[in-house]
Design brief:
Elements: E1 5-10, H1 13-19, E2 26-29, H2 42-51, E3 56-59, H3 71-86, E4 91-94, H4 105-115, E5 119-122, H5 132-141, E6 146-149, H6 157-171, E7 176-179, H7 188-195, E8 199-202, E9 205-208, E10 211-214, H8 216-227
Parallel strand pairs: 1-2, 1-8, 2-3, 3-4, 4-5, 5-6, 6-7
Antiparallel strand pairs: 9-10
Helix pairs in contact: 3-4, 6-7
Length: 230
Amino acid sequence: MKRAKLEVCCGSIDDVIAIKDLDCDRIELNCALELGGLTPSLSTLKMAKQYTDKPIMCMVRCRGNNFIYSKEELEVMYADARLLIENGADGLVFGALSEDETIDIEALKMMRLIAKDKTLVFHKAFDVIKDKEKALKILIAEGVDRILLMNETGEDILQAAKRIGMYHDTYGDKIEFLPGGGITEENILKILSLTKADQIHGTFKKIDTTGIKVAKERVKKTLTILKGDC
């Protein structure tokens, strides 16, 4: 049986280097993980591509706090997204909401155009949306490839996983679901089972004097668990 894919959230070039020789499948590249992850610098992307041939998904988010952006903030994110795609990003991770916390459809359409034939992921802004069924239909209609989601609003992680499993039953043939948030070595198999997902996202973090880092040993342990070798 093929193991679930593992996407590792990296907040710096050091994180990328730490896991470059491990058998994880994909990197989500950010900066400022302490703010939930913001757009990485272009230099970070370019250097990351020198160290790894793993697919690199780039976060496009200009600030922390909520996901409701001004026109000017969106223009900044569009410009960043174009540069990231032009310089080798394998996809974009993005989410923007309107004032009523529904999907900002115009922003989503623009990001789909910028991503071209690369992967477009709608991130955990989805968790804030109240009418998730309607949101799912919009994301599918607008050509989003994948949703990163779990429990941004503090829902119990296992309840959130069960909810994702229901989404998968209804929409899993139209869009990919990527569980992320609160993933640990202890609960990863349970979450995969409940969500029915074939991929999972985690930071596997440690905190030191420089901030949040990826803990290489935690990623190695997680891969061992996913391979069924423990």
